[in-house]
Each structure stands twice: as C-alpha cells, then as structure tokens.
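New to this. Help decode the following:
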Amino acid sequence: MQTHQERYDQWAPDYNRDVAARNYDGPEYIVRYLMEIVNSGKVLINPTNPDFKVIDVGCGSGLVGKGLQEQGFRHIDGTDLSQGMIVEAHKTGAVDLNHPLPFFLHGQYDLTLCCG
C-alpha cells in the first residue's frame, strides 16, 4: 500500500493540471479571502513589506505561494511532506524552499497559511 507521501510524490508532476481540470480553486480562494481581510483594514498586513514573513504549511505545488506573490508578498517560505510537490513548488519561484526551517517556529513568521 502506498503512503500518502508516496502518492503525492507520484502525482506531483500532473497535480496542477489535474486540479485545474476539476476546477479546484482553494489556493485562489484563500488568497482572495486574505486580501479581503487586508483591504478591510481589520489586520495590519502590508504585503509589500520585505520583512513580513509568510509560511505556507503543506505548500504542495506552490499555488498559494504564487497567488501571494502576485499580491505583492515577497518573503514566502513553504514546507511539504512530499518532495515531489516541493520540486513543483520550486518551479513557481514564489516559495523559498532553499533553507531549513527553524526547529522552533514561534515568532518566526507573521502569517501561517495552510490550504488543501
């Protein structure tokens, strides 16, 4: 029996195409919702502030990171169980996967997102 990680590693090269064919809009929805909150002034988030740090937990193929980057966010880290998905996320250029995450994340990020 395949593990969850193995299944996503195998699916990674076709993931974006497959979810688009199913009209999956989770990444767009979460980015749109975040920007509604930002634009309402209910929270003080400045996407263009280079010191504002976001972590996308379970970043998958990087669809949320790409959407955040399009909204002006610059410091986006990502992590995922699937190495295959990380390879795909790296291709977006939006998510920084080039350094290990701190063991203790408390206070390291201004925003934590998880979609999926």
Summary: The chain has one domain: 4-99+107-113.
